[in-house]
Amino acid sequence: MLGFALTNAHAAHHGMKKDIVDVAAENGSFTTLVAAVQAAGLVDTLKGDGPFTVFAPTDEAFAKLPEGTVEMLLEPENKDKLVAVLTYHVVAGKVMAADVVTLDSATTVQGQDVSIMVDGDKVMVDNAQVIATDVKAKNGVIHVIDSVILPK
Based on the number of CB atoms within 10 Å of its own CB, is 33 exposed (0-12), middle (13-18) or buried (19 or more)? Predict the structure, then answer.
């Protein structure tokens, strides 16, 4: 029994059994992001093979947007806009933090590039600071950011 518990904890720790959506949902800091992914119809995509690198804004990051922005984006008629915002947070491929810091930009699934800047020990993706890195999932990796980034 103990062996099983250890194996399970090990798998959970490394996130290898769970996809990006499950990892984000279980974390508890990404309820807005998960709701947005569901509203945008991107669940199946982000549960797909990938691999994907997701710059995941926390609930606090979404809360920093102007009042009403999230609600507006979640309305069905704004689905295209929501998809654009969310896919702007996703880069194809598994880009670990060690690789992110060697880049000055990355092309998102949305099509536009995000800028990447390393300033001392701070890593910025557009205007967002990376606050946690290399959260692994079986189909990619999540880097946590403190602001929502928006396509031009």
Answer: buried
Read off the pLDDT band of 121 (50, 70, 90): confident
- 20 Cβ contact list (under 8 Å, min separation 6): 46, 47, 50, 52, 54, 137, 139, 140, 142
- Residue that the structure tokens 């990619």 belong to: 140
CA distances from 34 to 25, 43, 82, 105 (A): 6, 8, 12, 25
pLDDT band for position 1 (cuts 50, 70, 90): very low
For the beta sheet containing 105-107, the strands, ordered from the edge strand earlier in sequence to the opposite edge, are 90-92, 52-57, 140-145, 128-137, 122-125, 113-119, 105-107
